[in-house]
Design brief:
Radius of gyration: 51 Å
Strand order of the largest sheet: 13-22-21-16-20-17-19-18
Number of strands: 22
Shape: elongated
Oligomer: single chain
Strand content: 15-25%
């Protein structure tokens, strides 16, 4: 069992390795395509990076403290609870419509004015400070030194977001057009001009542009302007729990970007100071309401104490009772301060908030201590208890009153000197280099994308182009391979391009006989090998006629037919090449002769045989018959008796008759010719004809009673994919 499984596993592994090497070979064969794709994408990335509008970034640094220390005396308890810097809430305040909306209004960011520039390169020329040349006078495009300033543009809701075009007339007047190009009216600099029955108004403060220059103007909604500003604005904490925020704003205009970020910082600082001042004002209002009440309570307590002393003839306290009194007064003072803080904190937090919970816990502790002192007081004589209670009320109320007066003065001072808890460490400043587009990164991404596209394109082409690459693929179809002919670079140089009249496309036409021009070419050497193989193969044939055909056009039938005839003639045989493709045959072009007076003329009875057989200059024993005038019925001519008589006559005159036939799958001519020749060879082109196509051509011939003797693999190239995958079977001998 193990022995039988081993070869299968090994074969599968080898097949997998071959596939991987073949993929690498395909990449090596098409490395120029891949490099061209990489270069093309890199060029696109470079051009885009050069023409795209640069984006600049302005940075600022702002510190947010826990609170304005000493700004509000009623919030001193908050500083004792160790609160973290409120950066998250402040970030949301900074990005709110309250702050950014004011910036939009102050900077007029809801009115967009943009110059109409030349397509593609217009913005690039503006960045390069290219002024209007003399030949561009009257052009509708604006150049780098031209601008229009619009201070306000009130429009009705129906025209929000609509784009209008301002065309400069001179330094003081302009014309306004709608999106369809219809003129809306004329306006003057400095005046609030109205258009569309008052639905659109505009005040242009200055025009610095030549006559004819155009600018697009658009008034967007305030919310859209705020969202646009928010999209370019970024706020983040520098470090962890530092309370320092790093601000950044991006935009195409560095000066406008810097101004906008400084404006946002000023607005945020102003509202922060105003908010702190409002808190101090609220605390002062609260204290002012408490002072008269505490003063009345103090007067009432003093009157009660004096009245009791008069009724008891001036009772004094012992030292122990005085000590208890001082402790009670101290606790009452602390409790009263906590109650005032609680009144303030209750307006800001719920009872479940940690700050509120800490205050309640401290208040409960002081109350427990006071209750313990009250128990000690109850053990004193009744007179001492009463005088202690009255003096406690007087002293506690007096302490509270003094504290209130002090806090009123402190709050007034803090209100007048409120600075907020925000400090601008670094004002906005624009980086010297733009942050986008990042040309090195853009080109790198473009190169990677080009590499991916190039490799994918090569693999997709290889996937869908499954042409024959080895003779084994042909032999699997049941045909022996008589020869594999390498692609001739020399023949490619000899060929010339002609334009097809039917589809106005160019194609390659043979021009020049390779066997005569370069007898040592590898393709000619392969044809000599084919000549030897055919000598033995045709010994059993019924005649000396050989048809060379193929499944489709462009496989090289004429090249093989003519050069095979040449090498056979050079060996001493009398050879005739017959161009039986009366539709598009090109045998005559090899010898630089016209196609007239050929096979079609003989078959139609217009010319005798002797007048259509032509000699080949420079090659003895080689003659040919061109296709003649293109007839309307080539298949019918081939089926007639004159074609059989023609073949019989030339077979007697020549040792070898080679018939170049049309493609098998295109027309039926090859099947008709094959029935009258003794030997048929079918030609397949390297990486062009798939095995299925070749199999279909073979079956088409067999259906017509023609049995192909063998096959020829033409135009084989030495490629890495075939070398790695299947090997290469052509070797040089020098």
């Amino acid at each position: 069992m193990n022995t039988s499984n081993t070869p299968t596993t090994s074969a599968a592994r080898n097949h997998e390795e071959i596939d991987i090497r073949r993929l690498l070979g395909i990449l090596l064969d098409h490395k120029k395509w891949v490099l061209a794709s990489v270069f093309g994408f890199a060029l696109i990335g470079f051009v885009y990076g050069s023409l795209a509008t640069p984006i600049y970034q302005a940075d600022a640094l702002v510190q947010i403290e826990n609170s304005g220390q000493g700004n509000n005396p009623l919030q001193e308890v908050s500083s004792l609870l160790g609160q973290k810097p409120p950066t998250l809430s402040e970030i949301e305040i900074i990005r709110s419509r309250m702050v950014l909306g004011q910036a939009v209004s102050l900077l007029n960011l809801d009115v967009n004015v943009a110059p109409v520039t030349m397509p593609v390169i217009g913005t690039f020329l503006q960045r390069q400070s290219v002024g209007r040349p003399g030949f561009a006078d009257g052009w509708g495009y604006a150049f780098s030194d031209e601008s229009v300033a619009v201070s306000e543009m009130p429009v009705s809701d129906d025209y929000l977001g609509k784009t209008f075009t301002l065309k400069v007339q001179d330094s003081y007047t302009y014309k306004l057009f709608d999106g369809d190009g219809s003129e809306l009216g004329t306006g003057e600099v400095g005046q609030l001009s109205t258009f569309l029955d008052g639905n659109v108004s505009m005040r242009v403060t200055s025009i610095q542009a030549a006559s004819g220059a155009e600018f697009t103007i658009q008034h967007i909604s305030r919310l859209a302007a705020i969202n646009g500003l928010k999209g370019r604005f970024n706020v983040g904490e520098a470090g962890s729990e530092t309370g320092i925020l790093r601000w950044s704003l991006t935009g195409p205009d560095p000066d406008a970007t810097e101004k906008a970020l400084n404006t946002i910082a000023d607005i945020y600082y102003s509202q922060n100071v105003q908010r702190q001042s409002e808190e101090a004002r609220k605390s002062l209002d609260f204290l002012n309401t408490q002072v008269p009440e505490i003063r009345a309570q103090l007067n009432q307590s003093e009157e009660k104490l004096n009245a009791y002393r008069e009724s008891k003839d001036s009772v004094d306290l012992s030292l122990e009772t005085k000590s208890v009194l001082e402790r009670i007064v101290n606790l009452e003072s602390q409790l009263n301060e906590l109650e005032m803080n609680e009144a303030e904190i209750s307006q800001r937090f719920t009872k479940s908030h940690p700050t509120y919970q800490a205050l309640l816990e401290k208040k409960a502790q002081l109350q427990r201590e006071r209750d313990n002192l009250d128990k000690q007081v109850k053990g004193l004589p009744e007179t001492q208890q009463e005088i202690l209670r009255l003096q406690r009320d007087v002293q506690v109320t007096n302490e509270i009153y003094v504290q209130l007066l002090n806090k009123v003065q402190e709050t007034k001072i803090s209100e007048a000197s409120t600075v907020g808890n925000v400090r601008v460490l670094d004002t906005a400043e624009v980086l010297s280099a733009p942050v986008a587009p990042n040309k090195p990164l853009l080109i790198a991404v473009a190169i990677i994308l080009g590499l991916v596209v190039g490799v994918a394109g090569v693999f997709l082409r290889a996937l869908f182009n499954r042409g024959i690459e080895t003779q084994e693929q042909i032999e699997e179809l049941g045909l022996p391979v008589y020869a594999t002919i390498p692609l001739s670079d020399e023949q490619s140089k000899l060929n010339r391009r002609v334009k097809r009249s039917d589809k106005d496309q160019s194609r390659s036409v043979l021009a020049g006989l390779l066997a005569s021009r370069n007898p040592a070419d590898m393709s000619v050497e392969a044809l000599r090998g084919l000549r030897t193989s055919l000598h033995f193969a045709m010994l059993e044939a019924k005649d000396n006629r050989l048809m060379i055909t193929g499944p489709s056009p462009g496989v090289g039938k004429s090249f093989v037919s003519i050069n095979l005839a040449a090498v056979c003639a050079q060996a001493g045989q009398r050879v005739l090449v017959v161009d039986a493709d009366m539709r598009k045959g090109q045998v005559h072009s090899v010898f630089g002769a016209p196609s007239e007076n050929g096979l079609s003329d003989v078959l139609s009875g217009k010319l005798p045989l002797d007048q259509v057989i032509r000699d080949v200059d420079g090659v003895d024993n080689l003659q040919y018959v061109s296709r003649g005038m293109a007839p309307p019925n080539p298949s019918e001519l081939l089926m007639g008796s004159r074609f059989s008589e023609f073949l019989a006559a030339v077979s007697e005159r020549f040792d070898l008759v080679i018939v170049d036939s049309p493609p098998v799958l295109a027309v039926t001519d090859a099947a008709i010719i094959g029935d009258q020749v003794g030997t048929t060879l079918i030609l397949a082109r390297f990486q062009l004809n798939p095995p299925k196509e070749l199999e279909l051509a073979i079956n088409r011939l067999k259906t017509a009673g023609v049995e192909p003797r063998g096959a020829i693999l033409n135009a084989v190239e030495r490629k890495a994919a075939t070398e790695y995958g299947y090997g290469y079977y052509h070797y040089s001998y020098k």
